[in-house]
Amino acid sequence: MVWFFFSCDEYNEEILKTNSGYWKETVSNTPIIGKWITSNGVKIGEKQVLVFQSYENINGSKSDWVMHVYQPTFLPPNQVIFRIYDV
């Protein structure tokens, strides 16, 4: 199952923390390059991949929950799209 969320709020580290754990960044931002005729080879946004880690595990082991944060260039900088799913 996949969930999509749209946020108009300022995207920051505080929204990535919960009572049961936190979302940890796995890699740095990856550019999204357009493949359509009108945007072929042009950067149309950035994608960030995060994995949920629980506070319950002392080792901070990763869960099966993954979140992609998309920051399209056609939206204002403070607006992002979240895609959350269970692997």
TrEMBL record:
Principal place of residence: nucleus
PROSITE patterns, per database record: NAC
Alphabetical list of Pfam families matching this protein: NAM
UniProt-annotated location(s): Nucleus
Taxonomic superkingdom: Eukaryota
Range of residues in the leader sequence: none
MF terms in GO: DNA binding
GO cellular component, one term: nucleus
Entry protein name: NAC domain superfamily
